[in-house]
Amino acid sequence: MQTTHRFSIKSQLRYRLDQDGWLLLNLAAARSPFQNLLSERVENSRGIAFREYEAPQGVSRFHGLAAPAGNLEIIYEAEVERTVFVGNPTMEIPESLLIDLPTEVVRFLYPSRYCESDKFVRLAAKEFGHLHPGHERVAGICNWIYTHIDYQPGATDQHTSAVDCLTLRAGVCRDFAHLGVTICRALGIPARYGSAYAFLLPQQDYHAFFEVWLGDRWWYYDATRLAPQQGFIHVGSGHDAADTSVATMSSSVQFDSMDVSVEKLSPHIVEFANGPVSF
Amino acid sequence: MQTTHRFSIKSQLRYRLDQDGWLLLNLAAARSPFQNLLSERVENSRGIAFREYEAPQGVSRFHGLAAPAGNLEIIYEAEVERTVFVGNPTMEIPESLLIDLPTEVVRFLYPSRYCESDKFVRLAAKEFGHLHPGHERVAGICNWIYTHIDYQPGATDQHTSAVDCLTLRAGVCRDFAHLGVTICRALGIPARYGSAYAFLLPQQDYHAFFEVWLGDRWWYYDATRLAPQQGFIHVGSGHDAADTSVATMSSSVQFDSMDVSVEKLSPHIVEFANGPVSF
Amino acid sequence: MQTTHRFSIKSQLRYRLDQDGWLLLNLAAARSPFQNLLSERVENSRGIAFREYEAPQGVSRFHGLAAPAGNLEIIYEAEVERTVFVGNPTMEIPESLLIDLPTEVVRFLYPSRYCESDKFVRLAAKEFGHLHPGHERVAGICNWIYTHIDYQPGATDQHTSAVDCLTLRAGVCRDFAHLGVTICRALGIPARYGSAYAFLLPQQDYHAFFEVWLGDRWWYYDATRLAPQQGFIHVGSGHDAADTSVATMSSSVQFDSMDVSVEKLSPHIVEFANGPVSF
Amino acid sequence: MQTTHRFSIKSQLRYRLDQDGWLLLNLAAARSPFQNLLSERVENSRGIAFREYEAPQGVSRFHGLAAPAGNLEIIYEAEVERTVFVGNPTMEIPESLLIDLPTEVVRFLYPSRYCESDKFVRLAAKEFGHLHPGHERVAGICNWIYTHIDYQPGATDQHTSAVDCLTLRAGVCRDFAHLGVTICRALGIPARYGSAYAFLLPQQDYHAFFEVWLGDRWWYYDATRLAPQQGFIHVGSGHDAADTSVATMSSSVQFDSMDVSVEKLSPHIVEFANGPVSF
Known about the structure:
homotetramer
């Protein structure tokens, strides 16, 4: 089943630069057959030209800029027509053998900065090894994370990894996504980190979820249960927050504040079906 | 200046499988304008067909196989004509601004599993921020690692990261490479992990070094000083040992033992020039 | 209910010293109203005089010696009459309010080297906060550890802490004890690490368990279920393995090998009652 | 050489309790031949009786209280006559052999929660092994910390240990003290963590330093160089901040704000001599 909705995104990000510095931004909605960008505006308050490019083989689009000392505001606005594919939760979406994975998917089996899956092999096998492979198992992982980890802004920081979060038992969407990615990889299931604008997200912010390779495509999973996955406007995907965060900055750049809003433009009533979601 | 040498590689890797499992091997010499594979043989003792592919956008070649329970031996043999470019150590090889990096190089600025460069920003700035950017700075990093870390087999294990090694002050080639990568990234210099067969390496083993993007290409650096870099036959490159190790295995596979030998075939005397080396 | 048994202990520990060094040994059975030492012999192969002392306010006895380079064997032999108090598992053994704890017990509420209870506060509350305070809760903690952690020699090393073990989900008696101590402290229950000679322990070795302050005394708990607690001959107690290990050594001392045996001398049949055990 | 000064201390600590909870406070000036308490007042805004006791064998004094939900203010005021012994920096203050240490000092050789000295053995030997044992070596450690670590409030938190700080290269007095303790223990020198009211401290706060056992007594060392050591009014000493922090609290207690002031009452001019300081 497919659903199509139209969303309007507005975001301002404000930074302070002690001295000249640079930012690499990953805030533009991804372009794909499932995301039709009706309009888009990426600007900054200093009128500096961006360097734009797409991650090789990835879905992420980057905007880089070098900026002088002072204040800097980044503005992003877009209208996006978003189609999502909603699977039938009772249907089979099988895991793949390593040997059958597409070449570009294999790298999402390896541990990464915030997803130390090499340390989770035994935990993953003990907690989730007995579950039915495929969607049922990943849904079980999401339930475990939702049950065992408190959603608690401020409990973690930019250095927090899956190992840290497993102990502290608290975190934000980024940490929930890292745990999901880590457990899947530890089971031999390719998984990656996704970032998005999310309709109906309780707080104004960017959102993070995780993607799992089942069958022949990436499926979205979000253990936070904060917003309907059919309202995700996909921004980027990567190994983890290390290469998928909204902004990578030189040390002279300090984050100041931001505003994010996502509106639904399509006139008809929101009807979000239940079930696994793919893009 | 370029040098060309011809090498013969022989390697056997022996594993035990408790039950059916899989291995993803990264042991074949890379193919490039600088590495001419005159002959090559990749076989296994069970006669199982390999799945072969190259990492998208990477230099690594992979051989995957699913194998039944029991013993398994992997044999790799090759003759390689290896050309290396030896830079003049007194010449300038500048660092690049983020904004000018090739798209496929940018991802090697991010922290990864064993290279927590997000935690090293202050250390890198304090210890190496004053050095002249470019080769001189990276050479300073190599000297610091060589001086501060003991080469000590057994002191670290497969979970050891740059943070761990910085404290323990001991490690093997893998750990030396991780530290080099981490410090460079913390300074905003793209760096990646490299694996190789190495001529004249004191112990029979695979070797690890690190690669740094300076000017318009990747340069080799090796803080272990164990073997001449002109005798490296390049196998793979990646974020760190997570995606560049010789073998990624399912949990049912146990490493048993291995033999590695690298012979020099070219008749003339070995004359390894000093200086930074690129491939 | 009290039981009294008589045990014979024999232990040899062998070390190699690259150069002059020292060892601080914690291998002698503790003296207490519950442990009557009928005979004891502590010797070393170099005939060096030990410095003997008891830990201030602790149960541990120490034997220190400075030794020259070369081989060194430590011999410990003792006959011990051991009385243990076996509680009724259905009876109440309540937790104490901090405010009512004996002065010398309070320090066992703090985190220590291998027991980072400051990081476990939320986990402990979520997993065990709903259990009935006292013995029932601690028994629940033991069951959780036994169920979630694999007893797996070689999976951990001397640097492994409770945080590490929680992720890796494997360890030895030392790690099981650290987890127990950590979770109790995170709940505000005083807990400490105990070492012992253990009758019927499957492998020849020293054993570790944990002690919990309930009511007016320390009770023994052992999540490994490897040996009957009534057969423990208490050696030492402390914050964790950092101050309760068999030997603390200068860097010039290498452990070589050891033998440990515990025999039961009392002629009557072994009748180990079930239930919580105190010394 | 001895100096004697008279100080007036005033401190208010404000907390919020979501529900009933408890605090264990370590904020009273220690009583010793070197600290004569001329007057003292310990009160709280709810008029609850404190439970007072001294740490067994330690210098710390504790005030425990159970309090109901709501706001809570703790008031501490004292006048203290403080005598410090100032050593001659060129004199010998030797390190002791383990075998000669007083029994109650030995436990400060072990690693503790925030001082993982078991991981620093090689670093300590490489960086400080060649220095002249005794005061000269410890002074070298202080210089190294002062040079390599930035004093940076906010860079660390209550979970930060010596390993973390060594990598991050930033911290506050607590972290500087932990590093000093850790390096000393890794060299086999007993060291402990000290807390104090400090005259002339730039910010209103409690202060932390470290103590090293040299010769026949504990000497003060402070790698932060923030305030003269002769103006320290000693509060407590322990393994590290785990057992020496100002307040240990149940999870229902939140710190709100505090005021601390230290005035010098003695009429004569401040003449702080240079040199190592003991209490």
